[in-house]
Specification:
Blueprint (H helix, E strand, L loop, with lengths): L2 E16 L2 E16 L3 E5 L6 H9 L6 E11 L3 E3 L5 H7 L5 E4 L13 H12 L5 H14 L16 H13 L5 E5 L7 H18 L2 E5 L3 H7 L2 E6 L2 E7 H6 L4 H8 L38 H5 L5 E4 L2 E3 L12
Parallel strand pairs: 3-8, 3-9, 6-7, 7-8
Antiparallel strand pairs: 1-2, 1-4, 4-5, 9-10, 10-12, 11-12
Helix pairs in contact: 3-4, 5-6
The structure holds adenosine-5'-diphosphate, iron/sulfur cluster (SF4) and magnesium ion.
Length: 332
């Protein structure tokens, strides 16, 4: 598998003032991983664990109070491109829409409420196809909409005239109109009801098959990951705690937190929702020492509150950060 993106020791923090006291929220705290061409990688974890922050940094949106403390994000195009070293104009010209697209939480963050959908497409296309006439651009849009199975009428609508599900499909169509190599999607189906959600997930799946690109899909909903993703990265309190193929993670989850996440999915026929991990996630302004999961972990040992478990490849392509896995540390 060829890598398209690599993240090395990334730390991204927010400096905030709470009741007049300066605090640093360590939302992404020393994360390293690689993303491959032609895969759907899922990012899972409870709300507040740093998923959206990680995606924003990978896409290069760094608005204060968010900043990168250290680490690297490299796009492996013809040569490695360091997105964190590029200025905004450079990113707009060279990367956005044609190499990488971002579908943020809530489609109204992307769509302009005052413009018909067709205009929003042609506005993007004309920046990157300056040589083409208006009619040709419109033809490209119609062709693209047809390829994705959307009704042509949406092009003449304003965003508010569409249903939530259709708006999200249009946002996905917009993100893919220049066939980018990478798409980041942050909770793209969370606001939708289950039936509509299914259709939108299927659209993402179909277009990945069609374009063989990379999708990085964020959702706290582990059932969505099971249905959609090829590999799964699990985050907890600003750290990545497990990464492997989705099939392997569901068959052989190794981190105690991952086990809780998977156990929390109701099985067919079950009437009760299972327990998630006891307690709640820690504040990222003052995270626990050692393994950040130790206050909630039923398997915690003394070492867990003293040292941080390294993120290690325990089995081929299966990475875990836990002292109980891999057998280096003994209970005491
Ligand atoms: N603009 C901001 N200013 C300060 N803290 C923030 C901001 N955005 C997010 N955070 C904090 O960063 C942490 C990670 O948040 P986020 O990346 O949104 O998590 P997730 O997407 O997993 O729910 C949380 O503690 C959140 O409160
Ligand atoms: S390192 Fe310790 S506290 Fe952390 S998940 Fe593993 S056993 Fe639990
Ligand atoms: Mg989020």
């Amino acid at each position: 598998m060829k890598k398209i993106l690599s993240v090395e020791n990334l730390k991204a923090y927010y400096d905030v003032k709470v009741f007049g006291i300066e605090r640093t929220v360590k939302a992404v705290d020393n994360i390293s991983f690689e993303v491959y061409e032609d895969e759907i990688l899922g990012l899972a974890g409870e709300s507040g664990c740093g998923k959206s922050t990680l995606i924003k940094v990978l896409y290069g949106i760094l608005k204060p109070p968010l900043y990168v403390k250290s680490g690297k994000v490299l796009y492996h195009l013809n040569q490695p491109v360091d997105i964190l070293a590029m200025d905004i104009e450079d990113k707009k010209e060279k990367l956005y829409w044609k190499v990488v697209s971002y579908i943020p939480q809530g489609s109204m963050n992307v769509l302009n409420p005052l413009l018909r959908i067709k205009k929003q497409f042609t506005n993007i296309l004309k920046v990157h196809h300056k040589e083409k006439a208006k009619g040709d651009l419109e033809e490209m849009v119609v062709e693209h909409i047809k390829n994705l199975g959307l009704p042509r009428e949406v092009l003449n609508s304003y965003p508010h005239q569409l249903s939530g599900g259709m708006r999200q499909r249009v946002t996905i169509a917009l993100a893919t109109v220049l066939t980018p190599r990478i798409i980041f999607a942050d909770e793209p189906t969370t606001a939708l009801d289950v039936v509509v959600q299914r259709g939108v997930l299927q659209l993402l799946k179909d277009l990945q098959k069609m374009y063989r690109n990379t999708i990085i899909m964020v959702t706290h909903d582990i059932a969505v990951h099971a249905e959609l993703t090829d590999r799964l990265a699990v985050m907890y309190a600003g750290k990545m705690v497990e990464l492997s193929s989705t099939r392997e993670i569901f068959k052989n989850p190794l981190h105690p937190y991952t086990k809780f996440l998977i156990n929390s999915v109701p099985q067919i026929g079950e009437k009760t929702i299972k327990n998630s991990a006891p307690g709640s996630p820690p504040s990222l302004a003052n995270p626990p020492t050692g393994c950040r999961f130790h206050p909630r972990c039923p398997l915690a040992m003394r070492v867990c509150s003293e040292k941080e478990p390294p993120f290690k490849e325990i089995l081929p392509e299966h990475f875990v950060a836990c002292f109980r896995v891999g057998g280096d540390e003994k209970d005491d």
